[in-house]
Design goal:
The protein is α+β, with helices and mostly antiparallel strands. The chain folds into 2 domains: 8-37, no CATH class; 40-87, no CATH class. The protein has helices at 53-62, 73-79, and strands at residues 12-15, 21-24. A two-stranded antiparallel sheet has the order 1-2.
Length: 87
């Protein structure tokens, strides 16, 4: 017998303005203007910083951080607390 795997989407992290984030149990709890992915406009990558993409993705996965495959390494490193965002 074959079992279908159903992905669990909630509870989930959502991201709001001013670098806010939170875990919500269902879509109706998410405030208007919040999204599935954080705003990366405030993050500046340094030419001197180098990260291993696969290692960063694995660390995010291990910590339960849902990643966007289009995120740069610098952004994942910030989410993991390896570097600080530049403002």
């Amino acid at each position: 017998m074959r079992h279908e795997v159903i992905p669990i989407e909630w509870p989930a992290w959502r991201y709001g303005p001013n670098d806010q984030s939170g875990v919500f149990n269902n879509p109706s709890e998410v405030p208007m203007g919040w999204s599935k992915y954080p705003n990366t406009d405030n993050f500046k990558a340094s030419e001197n910083e180098c990260f291993d993409t696969e290692s960063l993705r694995k660390q995010c996965e291990d910590q339960g951080i849902e990643i966007n495959p289009q995120w740069p390494d610098k952004h994942m490193a910030i989410l993991l607390g390896l570097v600080q965002p530049e403002v």
